[in-house]
Amino acid sequence: MATVNERQAQDTALENYFREGEVRARNLANRGPIRLTAQGKLAPEILDSYKEHGFYILEHVFDDSELAEIKAEFEGIVDRLPTSPDSLIDKHGRPALGLGLPQSPFRWSKPLGDPMGGAGGLKRAPVKMIEGEPAAEQPQQVVFIVRGPLQFSDAALRAYAHPGLMAVCEAINGDDFVPFSDGFVIKQPGAGAAFAWHQDGVTHWDHPEWDPEMQGFNFMIQLYGSTPANGVWFVPGSHKLGKIDIHEVVSAAGGNLLPDAVPFVCNPGDVAISNRQILHGSFANTSSDLRVSLNFGFHRRKSVLGVRSKSVEEVFDAERVCKRAEMIGYAIDARRQRFPAEVPFAYKPHIQNGEVYHWNEAARGEINAYYLRDLNI
Ligand SMILES: O=C(O)CCC(=O)C(=O)O
User: Fold this and answer.
1) What is the CATH topology of the domain spanning 4-302?
2) pLDDT tens column, 305-332
3) Domain ranges of the chain
4) Could you tell me the pTM of the whole model?
5) Is 293 in the pocket of ligand 1 (CB under 6 A)?
6) Is the CB of 303 under 6 A from ligand 1?
7) Is 299 in the pocket of ligand 1 (CB under 6 A)?
8) How far, in Å, CA of 155 to CA of 145, rounded?
C-alpha cells in the first residue's frame, strides 16, 4: 500500500495531468455538432477529422427530453442490479435484473480497481492502470459494465437508431455496416474501475489489407457528461500505427500518464466516436462525478463475415451476422414509433433484402440475450 506522501504525490501528478490533458484536448479540432450535407451525408470535414485523430466529439446529439428518458431507464437498471456477483436479489430485496439469462450481463470490479489490465487481465491491456484506495463504505465489488443494454431499456434501443448517428456510421463504414457490441460503462464516483491502456481490436492486425478502420468503431453516448478524471483518454492518431507495444509506450512515459494522450470532455447528450484501434484507457474514478457511457459499435460487414474472431475463437457466419443486425431494424422501428415526426434512418441491407422489423412484445422476446451474438473481433 502507498504511503500518505506517495499517495499525495500521485494525486498531484494526476491533477496536473488532467489539467494539461484537457488543454491539449481543447486544442484539437475534433468536436462539434453533427452536420449533414444537403444529400443527408456526413459533412466531410467531420469524417476527415475523425480519421485523422481516431476520435471525435459530436456535441448536443440528444436533447434534454430524450436524454432524460435514457437516464431514467438507466437509473432503473441500476436500481435493479444484484447486490453482489453471486446475489439473486437487488438492494430492495426483489429478484435482481438479469436472472434467467444464460450468461450474466454484468461485469464486476473491486471499487477503483483495474480488472482488465496487467498480467492475469486481458492480453490487449498488458500494463495495470493506477488503482485507487476506496473508502471503507464502498462494497467489495461494483458493476462497471452492463452488457446488452438494448434489451433492458427501450430508450437505449431508440438511441441506437438515432438518424444522425446512423449517418455517421454509414460515412465511416459504408452502407453495409453491422453491429459489434454494446454496453453501459458505469464509472461511479469513488468506485468506477480503471480501463488499462489498450487497443480494442485483436483479430485483423496481420491482415494483408489492414487499414485503420478495419476493426470498427464505438459510439459513446454521455448520459451525465465526462471530465478528464472520469472520461476516456485517447492517444490521437494512434489508430493508424498498427499494433502498438503498450509495455514500451508506458515504459517510455515512465508510467501510465502518457504525454500525448487527451481526455474526452463532454456535456450530457454529447457522443464520442472512437476508433477501436486507437490506444485508449481511463483512470479509476476518484472524482465526485458520475460518468455513464452508453457504448455501441459497428463494423463493416466484410470485417466480420466469415471471419474467425481471435476474440471469441468463433467463425461469424452469415446467419449470426444477420441475426445480430436485426437489432438495427428493431431500433429503427422503436424510434419511429416514439418520434413519428423524425425521418427514420434507411438501413440499406434490410431494404435490399426486403426485411421489415416491428418493435413489439414478440420482438422483445426475440432479442433476449442478444449480446451472446456480439461480433467481437
Ligand atoms: O469507458 C471507459 O472508461 C473505457 C471504455 C473502453 O476502453 C472500451 O470500451 O474499450
Assistant:
1) Jelly Rolls (2.60.120)
2) 999 998 888 899 999 999 999 999 999 9
3) 4-302
4) 0.96
5) yes
6) no
7) no
8) 18
